[in-house]
Amino acid sequence: MIKIGIAGAAGKMGSTIASLCSKENDFKITLLTEMQGHKTIGTEIYGCKITDNLKDNVNNIDVYIDFTTPQSTLDSLKILKTAKKPAVIGTTGFKDNELIEIKNIAFEIPIVLSSNYSIGINVILKLLKDAVKIIKDDYDIDIVESHHRMKKDAPSGTAITLAKAILEEKKLDFDKNVIYARQGRDNERPRDQIGIFAVRGGGVIGEHTIIMASTGDKIEIKHTAFSRETFAAGAIKAARFIINQKPGLYSMKEVLGI
Ligand SMILES: NC(=O)c1ccc[n+]([C@@H]2O[C@H](COP(=O)([O-])OP(=O)(O)OC[C@H]3O[C@@H](n4cnc5c(N)ncnc54)[C@H](O)[C@@H]3O)[C@@H](O)[C@H]2O)c1
């Protein structure tokens, strides 16, 4: 039985993960956390009381799944590092220096970090590398993503991950080659530019389209998440994987063996 801790238990992702975990035979939910002062602290779901105290309860878990906020995740990782407990991180919006902090913590504990736990996006990441190799510099590439109106970070972590995969293949630099808007009179498109555009509205769970256009044709690779369960299921897969790993930073690529 895997003793699982879930952060942000009242959040959109945390509650979905807890619900899925409660139906899995090999998991027992032994810790649910929420932000200090949250109205759900002390309430019980799935036989577990929600607490704001990870530190005093960390020894009661085998693995911690965290989809919260960058600051909350970094605070939790420090506690997990001391307790030598593995983590599955789904939070997005980390700055570069925060990503370095996570990499350093991963020298001490095993961590899966992924901006998108769906299988579909991870398949696209693999396909994209081949596509970019084949189209070479003949096609202009832009990424358009849509999410619900409550999403805090923009553009999405997934769009950034997709862009990084393209840039790596094309040997381009994120800061030099990525733009987030086009506006004004003098806006001819440089050939090595990648645009990432964030659309926000309503309840969209998550859509990402990679558009590759030449002068002769256009390819669109699109992923649509139908529900948060697709991310939750991937995070649960990652939790099963990470409990048996050595310290290090892993991605869904390793979890899925692709
Ligand atoms: N990687 C993926 O596949 C994936 C998929 C969906 C969302 N996300 C990301 O996951 C994060 C959460 O998304 P959401 O839609 O569930 O947001 P949300 O706002 O619905 O949930 C976040 C929850 O975390 C709680 N929280 C904040 N500080 C906390 C703390 N210190 N301890 C415990 N809980 C704390 C909040 O109270 C809230 O309930 C975002 O960064 C989002 O972009 C990632």
Could you outline the blueprint of secondary structure elements for this entry?
Blueprint: E1 2-6, H1 12-22, E2 27-33, E3 44-45, E4 48-51, E5 63-66, H2 70-83, E6 87-89, H3 96-105, E7 110-113, H4 119-135, E8 140-147, H5 157-170, H6 174-177, E9 178-179, E10 194-200, E11 207-213, E12 218-224, H7 229-242, E13 248-250, H8 252-256
Parallel strand pairs: 1-2, 1-5, 2-4, 5-6, 6-7, 7-13, 8-10, 9-10
Antiparallel strand pairs: 3-4, 8-11, 11-12
Concise synopsis of the structure shown:
With 258 residues, the chain is an alpha/beta fold. It has helices at residues 12-22, 70-83, 96-105, 119-135, 157-170, 174-177, 229-242, 252-256; strands at 2-6, 27-33, 44-45, 48-51, 63-66, 87-89, 110-113, 140-147, 178-179, 194-200, 207-213, 218-224, 248-250. The chain is built from 8 helices and 13 strands.
What can you tell me about this protein's structure?
It is a single chain. The chain has eight helices and 13 strands. By secondary structure, the protein is α/β, with parallel strands linked by helices. Strands 3-4-2-1-5-6-7-13 form an eight-stranded mixed beta sheet, with helices on both faces. A five-stranded mixed beta sheet has the order 9-10-8-11-12. The radius of gyration is 19 Å and the shape is elongated. The two termini are 27 Å apart. 35% of the residues are buried. The model has no long low-confidence stretch (mean pLDDT 97). It binds nicotinamide-adenine-dinucleotide. The site of nicotinamide-adenine-dinucleotide has 25 residues, from helix 1.
